[in-house]
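Late entry, 2-acetamido-2-deoxy-beta-D-glucopyranose complex.
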Amino acid sequence: MRPILSISSLLLATTLVSADDASYDVNAVCTCDQMMRYYGTSNNGLWGGSWWQSAILMASLADISSLDSSYNGTYFDTYSNTYSNAPSFNSYTGFLDDFYDDEGWWGNAWLTVYDLTKNPDYLNLAISIYNDISGGVNTPCGGLYWEKNGGYIASIANELYIALAASLANRVSSDQKQGYLDAATTGWDWFFNIGVVGDDWLVVDGVDNNTCQPTGNKYSYNQGVILTAAVELATATGNSTYLDLAGNIANATTATNGTFADENGVLKDCANDSCDIQGAMFKGPLFRGLRQLQLASPHDNWKDFITTNAKSLWNNALNVTNSECNTGSAFMGPMTGVNEVTQGSALDCLVAAWAVTS
Ligand SMILES: *[C@@H]1O[C@H](CO)[C@@H](O)[C@H](O)[C@H]1NC(C)=O
Ligand SMILES: *[C@@H]1O[C@H](CO)[C@@H](O)[C@H](O)[C@H]1NC(C)=O
Ligand SMILES: *[C@@H]1O[C@H](CO)[C@@H](O)[C@H](O)[C@H]1NC(C)=O
Ligand SMILES: *[C@@H]1O[C@H](CO)[C@@H](O)[C@H](O)[C@H]1NC(C)=O
Ligand SMILES: *[C@@H]1O[C@H](CO)[C@@H](O)[C@H](O)[C@H]1NC(C)=O
Ligand SMILES: *[C@@H]1O[C@H](CO)[C@@H](O)[C@H](O)[C@H]1NC(C)=O
Ligand SMILES: *[C@@H]1O[C@H](CO)[C@@H](O)[C@H](O)[C@H]1NC(C)=O
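Prediction complete; structure with ligand written out below:
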């Protein structure tokens, strides 16, 4: 598919300079148009050569399209094109591979596309991905391995599985809900009991499969996907405890001059050009989770963090060339390392700012 220029982006030239509550929409549209220029360039149905990140970028497109019904039509063919063509760039079957987190990204992304389109093919695809993932639950430490052939137990694979199970519980018919809900609550309880969520409400990377002890660094995507899971679980159960726990995680993540935010409240991810095309994606799911939490359970801490980052990105990490909005990997700037993934992470931040201020 050839990306086409949206009507909105043709109107941008005069409005791009500002970054405030009145311009997140045009900034997001310009950032998304630029993200779409990577679509199908190396692999038909994917953005650039990226596999798991393309799932997130597809969900980001669906998210902005759900906010703007006139933009919704601009790239609407993307979902069916990805559905049909992306699997041929995977040496496995469909959207499955050897990594449970890759599968989780795709499963969750197809549900986001289902929310926009209400096309049951996308719901059924998400269910088939879920069925493959759920077959892997129950390592000797509980939970889900990162890779299908065992070894390390990654937090991200488990968070995505919990979010997918809870999201399915909210979307399948009522007679099918309970199995997904049981899987989600069991997964959630395991996740909190195994110790990956510290007393500081920061999530470590995973669990050592030999010792069953939490281990590893702290990454922004692990702070974000668990928020999505919490919002879906709160919806499915009516139990607001999930939102309270998510609020503690969001507070810890957004704390100024903390582990994740610098002294100006800007996310430190990718500072000093430190990210590759994997790490540059991590912040997208954080802004997605914060947006969902803010809409379900508003708090100025999170709203201010979202808008502060959207403004910093626009003021410090943007290069507009020929009306194309190139967004860099570090939101405090300078603009470096632009690719499809940096466009997608910036889009998640701008969409979050748009959604929580409109
Ligand atoms: C997006 O467009 C599709 C196709 O026209 C339509 O079915 C769907 O309802 C639209 N969604 C929104 C949120 O505008
Ligand atoms: C943990 O994973 C490693 C690497 O895959 C494997 O060699 C080891 O047998 C595993 N240990 C357990 C207890 O499953
Ligand atoms: C709500 O969820 C929390 C966290 O899982 C749990 O401890 C609590 O028992 C639940 N409350 C009810 C009324 O089910
Ligand atoms: C988050 O921090 C604010 C203070 O900044 C506090 O009022 C709130 O109770 C904290 N926790 C949650 C879950 O919102
Ligand atoms: C940020 O935190 C460090 C300690 O982690 C402290 O030394 C420094 O003064 C703080 N900076 C600001 C601006 O609060
Ligand atoms: C980036 O580099 C500067 C200069 O070396 C340093 O002061 C700063 O702490 C670094 N930022 C991060 C988040 O690592
Ligand atoms: C902005 O992008 C253009 C085109 O890629 C490039 O020539 C220029 O050097 C960039 N400017 C900055 C400040 O990065």
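Residues 239, 241 surround 2-acetamido-2-deoxy-beta-D-glucopyranose (ligand 3) (CB under 6 Å). Will revisit in the morning.
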